[in-house]
Amino acid sequence: MNSVERLVHYIDKLEVEAESIIPDNRPPSGWPSRGEIHINNLEIKYGLDSPLVLKGISVNTMAAEKIGIVGRTGCGKSTLATSFFRFIEATSGSIVIDDVDISTIGLKDLRSNITIIPQDPVLFNVIHSVSDQENNEPITLDSPVKENGANFSQGQQQLIAIARALVRNSKLIIMDEATASTDFKTDHLIQTTIREEFKDSTVITIAHRLRTIVDYDKILVMDAGNVVEFDIPYLLMQKPDGWFRGMCEKSGEFAELINIAKQKYEKISLA
């Protein structure tokens, strides 16, 4: 009986995803071409009777800006990242990318035109049993792919995901803690690639390592589903009781982080 009730619930109660393609409302060819983002009073919750997990988020970014999102676990960072793909539909508010409200177009048109590099890439999941020799071999176009990508390390999987974004020439890239479990050398390679190869793309990065995003154009600090700070990293670090400054101080790398942020600030001030 429980199984029947569960089936009825799945059939009648679960929401169906939006249309894959809406013929009368397709984005322009080559969209997005700039990567300009306007988030207006965005609110999201996971169920009709659930509390809001994003509460009136309003943020504007310019084309090709690099935005870092930080905050404590459960503050809404990942929910904000997935909202660009409409894995969860907004309760209210909007996300507009290059003059297109993403809620008005089909999911295929949306998801096929922006790129996500998740913490655990779907096609290339974590390794199970790979020898050190196999793990250290360079990846080539002819490299075989074992089931679940078992012959690739976590860092290699993420590099492949980044290579995919490069091939697609994506103008909007969402990285959800994509460097959280990589070694320093691989992390450095990933960050260098982002700065050099994606210089004309908008990149939104959620990262555990503040070093990863301290030289970005802007930092968005979240807490309990709210935006509590959004500005240039160096300016945020000048606030004595600021959220971002506090995170940097707790990291034990404050002197180095503020030096990196200052160099970036002076560079853009002279431009």
Automatic annotation (TrEMBL):
The keyword RNA-binding does not apply. SMART domains: AAA (SM00382). InterPro entries: AAA+_ATPase, ABC_transporter-like_ATP-bd, ABC_transporter-like_CS, ABC_transporter_C-like, P-loop_NTPase. It holds the Pfam family ABC_tran. One of its GO terms (molecular function) is ATP binding. Residues 37-249 form the ABC transporter domain. Keywords: ATP-binding, Nucleotide-binding. GO terms for cellular component: membrane. The keyword ATP-binding applies. SUPFAM superfamilies: P-loop containing nucleoside triphosphate hydrolases. This is 18280_t:CDS:1. It comes from Racocetra fulgida.
